[in-house]
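re: the backbone from monday

yeah here it is again, tokenized this time
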């Protein structure tokens, strides 16, 4: 009985330690992301008005590397219960190394509490490609916002405002998916990332609602109580945003893994060891982009 009680207490202690460590990691990740997206937060807290869309769009572009670095943390931090991150850690410990067209781990696989250094290393590493994606999507977000401003001044143009609003929301989600792809594929061509970001956002489209609610809630919280929201909720909200975009991008991840013919890579992205797609180039990825856009 004593041994069973000690074992139960030990399991409870491990569970509590895991939960406490997860809370710590989410808090630290949130504070890092807060610093990384400070241009967007600063503009929003100051103006709190969508009429200032040129400044907000520019701030979104400048904040894209900070968002991408946060996605890199969520991708590889083993404490955050991600199945893919756990499989990646296990495979790395077994000696498997993914091909060089797949990004290596951004977080040391043996450190369950690492956040600050991995975040800023990822920020520097992802900065050029994330800025490019932010600038491309920012241009179209600005164009649609400007069109909306013009339409609102026309009698019949008000009918187009809901359509343009949906387009802007879709573009923001496409940017988030593209940043997930930037994190995953270090050699991907920029136009392939943009194209697949848009296409993948149209799949599992219900995730846009989840992501949109999370983003809206975050910036509503930043407007009403920036200190509490910034310190306590940044990590969990951006984790939800990442999970939504990652779920949409999974379609391409799995397809490219099967097309590669690497059984370990297939297991990493799907959790099983299914056979690769027949013919090597005819998998689901053909609907999006060929592997030549990701492997160089």
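seq for it, each position gets an aa:
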């Amino acid at each position: 009985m004593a041994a069973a009680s000690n074992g139960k207490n030990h399991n409870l202690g491990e569970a509590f330690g895991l939960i406490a460590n997860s809370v710590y990691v989410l808090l630290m990740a949130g504070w890092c992301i807060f610093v990384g997206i400070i241009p967007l937060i600063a503009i929003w807290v100051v103006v709190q008005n969508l009429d200032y869309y040129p400044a907000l769009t520019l701030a979104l572009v400048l904040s894209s590397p900070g968002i991408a670095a946060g996605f890199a943390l969520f991708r590889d931090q083993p404490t955050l219960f991600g199945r893919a991150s756990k499989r990646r850690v296990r495979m790395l410990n077994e000696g498997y190394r993914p091909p060089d067209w797949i990004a290596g781990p951004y977080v040391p696989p043996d450190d369950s509490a690492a956040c600050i250094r991995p975040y800023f290393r990822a920020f520097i590493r992802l900065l050029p490609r994330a800025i490019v994606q932010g600038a491309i999507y920012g241009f179209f977000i600005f164009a649609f916002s400007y069109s909306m401003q013009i339409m609102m001044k026309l009698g019949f143009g008000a009918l187009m405002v809901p359509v343009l609003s949906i387009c802007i929301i879709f573009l923001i989600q496409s940017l988030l998916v593209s940043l997930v792809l930037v994190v995953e594929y270090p050699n991907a061509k920029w136009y392939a990332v943009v194209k697949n970001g848009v296409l993948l956002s149209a799949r599992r489209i219900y995730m846009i609602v989840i992501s949109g609610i999370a983003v809206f809630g975050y910036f509503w919280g930043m407007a009403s109580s920036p200190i509490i929201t910034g310190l306590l909720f940044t990590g969990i909200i951006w984790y939800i945003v990442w999970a939504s975009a990652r779920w949409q991008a999974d379609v391409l991840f799995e397809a490219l893994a099967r097309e590669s013919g690497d059984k370990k890579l297939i297991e990493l992205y799907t959790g099983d060891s299914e056979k690769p797609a027949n013919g090597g180039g005819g998998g689901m990825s053909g609907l999006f982009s060929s592997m030549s856009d990701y492997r160089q």
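DSSP finds ten helices and no strands in the chain. Residues 116-151 form the longest helix (36 residues).
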